[in-house]
Amino acid sequence: MQHYIVQPHNGGAPETLVIFLHGFASGGEETAETIRRELAPRLPSAKFICPDASLSENGCRSWFQVGDMLDGPDGAKAAARAAAAAPAINAYIDGVLKAENMPASRVVIAGFSQGASMAFYAALQREAPVRGLFCLSGGGLDRIENPASKPPVLLAAGEYETGNYSGMPQVESALQKLKTLGFTAGDYCVRGQEHALNRETLAAFTFFSGVLDKIAPLQRPVKRPPPPRL
Questions:
Q1: What is the pLDDT of residues 167-226, one digit of tens each?
Q2: Residues linked to residue 50 through DSSP beta bridges, in sequence order
Q3: pLDDT of residue 9
Q4: In this structure, are residues 86 and 78 in contact, taking their beta carbons and an 8 Å threshold?
Q5: What CATH code is assigned to 3-215?
Q6: For residues 47 and 13, what is the distance between their CA atoms, to the nearest angstrom?
Q7: pTM over 0.85
Q8: Which among 111, 109, 169, 170 has a CA at the least distance from the CA of 141?
Q9: Strand, coil or helix: what is 128?
């Protein structure tokens, strides 16, 4: 699976790895450029990896089949198809973690729109919980059953997203389900925004990063002074 990388803005070794899945009809390169411009400077120690979905529908990249839902989104169909596609996505994630020599405890899985649905069902099928799961404007998230792990989750959507599929009504429904299942989960309404991946909506991820530092702080190596010369 082809992917695009945004190295840590501070030029150092990454403290956190973020695998970010794009929305329908977008791509890894476009998502990486938006992250490089609007998010990476705010989280200078994070490395971002943005893969391309391998499925093509009408010339558009897609994580799972959605052609029959474009005119009428269906949460049940989206959930079932994302869950079915999750093992292949998790195989890709496993390969990235091995190549990056990064433990799951330092990895955040994230996504926007269809990519948020895909990230959600992939992350929750993983036996070893990742550090966090960020879903921006995903659909079908309240259909989760029997998750394999329960990482901290933030569900976000634009204030002006319409309908119950990917807007705040979906966020609230999914949040209730996650809390019933025992998750540490929260929601974030992006004021003044519609369905978009931009500086304003990515601010929700910056907020989530701060929350994770309190929920699951990274275990950074202790810097010890050099021994005195004798």
A1: 999 999 999 999 999 999 999 999 999 999 999 999 999 999 999 998 878 766 555 566
A2: 4
A3: 96
A4: no
A5: 3.40.50.1820
A6: 9
A7: yes
A8: 170
A9: coil
